[in-house]
Design goal:
This protein is α+β, with helices and mostly antiparallel strands. The protein folds into 2 domains: 113 residues; 210 residues, no CATH class. Helices cover 31% and strands 23% of the residues. The strands form 5 sheets. Strands 5, 6, 7, 12, 16, 17 and 18 form a 7-stranded mixed beta sheet that branches. Strand 17 and strand 18 form a beta hairpin. Helix 5 packs antiparallel against helix 6. The N and C termini lie far apart (115 Å). About 12% of the residues have low confidence.
Length: 426
């Protein structure tokens, strides 16, 4: 009987070496993954600490703004006046401030490109929408998530080809032998768990007029028109006369506001309750004196203001024009850094904006609707037009300082009104 030659199986000889190489690559991938994860966690920890410090600065700024509002009935963009210095090393910038809202943003080199914000939409705001929050760009989120745990690419594992080994050739006809089963190296690649998306940060949308001025002083000093009715004597004046009357009224009002209540000496023979009752009476008399002064000096003024640069849009039937600013009383501090401040509060938005530098500036765009037939008969492009504005100057229930309140307006041509406006018309 002839003996069959024994042929060595090359596949069985390479299985062990392939398994060793596969496990070595998997181990190297795990080491790289652990190192990257540790580095990212350390970096994330530093950013978290800096972010908390920046948000703590913004919270402290909010407390200072609340204290400022309690004293001045408005917010401010002047960080020096607030006595605020960030302790986190962040660059904090006031976006705007008014009598009803304010906003600020903060940037820090460690947090780049993340920026932190705070938006307060009410004087006593303490809700979740008024807390500091940070936001980063989409590009940064992608960069941060690229080396996330489990996403590092492991070294490729080379698997042996699955071609069957040829059966040994024998002189006699025999059925071909099946290829021997070979163990394969299996590397478990679990799908990385992406971190849950952060909850949406509540934001506050501050409604501002479409043409709100860039001046922070105008935003801070101007409130919405209306809220009052005619008061005291009604007087028709020119813009120059109106400025003089306002200055005189504000001077008297500020003298009364700045006056000190007289001291009440305690009688050694009266009880504490009797003394406190006399102090309360003196305070009531002091307040009554201020109320009586405002009742005496408050006035309603009808101001006739010439207009210029008249334009008429026949398609929209709108008249636009401009007027000269009206001077308002200001007070200057002895400190040169503080500059001038308005001595009167303006309730004239969105028709007039008030600031210490420009006074009461007109910005009543797109509010004068005049039909084409009326515009043609009045010849608005050639006839002199007059803006007749009705103001109340004095004390308001919602303001501590003297104020100028816009009640209504008329646009007149040839002595007749061609359009009217009041705060309820928008």
């Amino acid at each position: 009987m002839a003996l069959e030659p024994r042929v060595a199986n090359p596949t069985s000889d390479s299985i062990t070496s392939r398994m060793a190489r596969g496990f070595a690559r998997a181990a190297a991938a795990v080491v790289v993954l652990v190192g990257l994860t540790a580095a990212l966690e350390a970096q994330g920890g530093d950013k978290a600490k800096v972010g908390d410090s920046v948000k703590a600065d913004l919270s402290r700024l909010a407390e200072l703004e609340r204290v400022w509002y309690d004293k001045n009935r408005t917010f401010t963009t002047d960080l020096r006046a607030l006595g605020f210095t960030p302790s986190s090393g962040a660059n904090i910038t006031m976006a705007y401030a008014s009598a009803r809202s304010w906003a600020a943003n903060a940037s820090h080199p460690t947090l780049q490109p993340t920026t932190c914000f705070i938006v307060v939409s009410q004087p006593g705001g303490s809700g979740s929408a008024d807390r500091p929050f940070c936001s980063e760009s989409t590009d940064n989120k992608q960069v941060a998530s690229a080396p996330a745990k489990g996403e590092t690419k492991a070294a490729p594992v080379t698997q042996a080809p699955r071609t069957a080994a040829a059966a040994p050739v024998t002189p006699k006809t025999a059925a071909p032998q099946a290829a021997p089963s070979r163990p394969q190296v299996v590397v478990n690649r679990r799908t990385a768990r992406r971190p849950a998306a952060p909850a949406p940060v509540p934001t506050t949308v501050v409604q501002l007029p479409a043409r709100a001025p860039s001046s922070g002083a105008a935003l801070m000093n101007t409130r919405a028109a209306g809220g009052v009715a005619d008061a005291g004597v009604t007087e028709a004046v020119t813009p120059a006369q109106f400025s003089e009357r306002v200055n005189a009224i504000v001077t008297l009002a500020l003298e009364s506001m700045n006056a000190k209540m007289p001291d009440v000496a305690r009688d050694p023979y009266e009880s504490a309750a009797e003394y406190q009752a006399r102090v309360a009476q003196a305070f009531a008399a002091f307040q009554r004196r201020e109320t009586e002064l405002y009742a005496r000096i408050s006035r309603t003024f009808v101001v006739s203001i010439p207009v210029k640069d008249v334009k008429y849009d026949a398609d929209r039937e709108v008249v636009d024009f401009s007027v000269e600013p009206v001077t308002l009383p200001t007070a200057r501090s002895f400190a040169a850094s503080e500059g001038a401040r308005l001595s009167v509060a303006c309730y004239t938005r969105p028709v007039f904006w008030c600031s210490p530098d420009s006074g009461m500036a007109y910005d009543g765009t797109d509010i004068w609707r005049v039909p084409r037939a009326t515009a043609r008969s009045a010849d608005v492009l050639r006839s002199p037009l007059t803006l007749v504005a009705r103001f109340v100057v004095g004390r308001r229930d919602d303001a501590r300082s003297p104020s100028v309140s816009l009640v209504s307006m008329e646009l007149q041509a040839k002595g007749a009104a061609i359009s009217r406006w009041d705060p309820g018309s928008r």
